[in-house]
Amino acid sequence: MSVIRKKLIRRTYPLEREAEFAAYHPVLRRVYAARAVDPKTLDRTLDTLLPYHLLSDIDRAVELLTAAIIQQKNILIIGDFDTDGATSTALAVRALRLFGTTNVQYLVPNRFNDGYGLTPALLLRAKLFNPQLIVTVDNGIAHHAGVLAAIALGIEVVITDHHLPAPRLPLPEADAIV
Fold it and tell me: Which long-range contacts (CB under 8 A, 24 or more apart) does 50-58 make?
């Protein structure tokens, strides 16, 4: 059995850089200073966020979600099992419940059995939830066939995905792509 040994190498940096990160844990101060992180990129206040209206289709997505909540439609969140997918799935479900809907459920595909994202195969499982609106989180931008299959069943689809679409492919024909 071989043992892999790694040597940690400390990067050098001007010590005064650490002062820029005084509010952080000492380990983070060293990491941020050594990696030349711009302190402005760590600002987590709301005023550093881009204006929401710059998100494509945001108004349409809000209309669909508002109507689904008011009409008590069945909403299904289709997530992903990685960190950002699990987090966004939980956040979407909690937010919708806080907005007053009790008809929200989620489905996280197993990549090994179901593939990734809103595939036609996953839609067969999704149908068991009787969704009237599917909201994808962390997936959907490349799932043309799954979106078309959902629309053929009369299910509205809102895609929320931070991944970029393939450069030569058209966007899926979802009701909204945020």
Answer: 55/178, 56/177, 56/178, 57/176, 57/177, 57/178, 58/176, 58/178
Does residue 171 share a domain with residue 88? yes
C-alpha to C-alpha distance for 82 and 35, rounded to whole angstroms: 26
Kindly state whether residue 34 falls inside one of the protein's structural domains: yes
Residue appearing with tokens 């101060």: 29
Decide: pTM greater than 0.85: no
Of 131 and 5, more confident: 131
Non-local (6+) Cβ contacts of 20 within 8 A are 32, 33, 39
The range of the structural domain enclosing residue 25 comes to 15-44
Is the confidence at residue 122, as pLDDT, over 90?
yes
* Together in a domain, 115 and 60: yes
Here the tokens at position 119 are 């595939």
Q: Exposure string (b/e) for 27-53, b if CB count within 10 Å is 16 or more?
A: eebbebbeeeeeeeeeeeeeeeeeeee
- Which range (5-19, 41-55, 78-92) has the least confidence? 5-19
Residues 34 and 99 in one domain: no
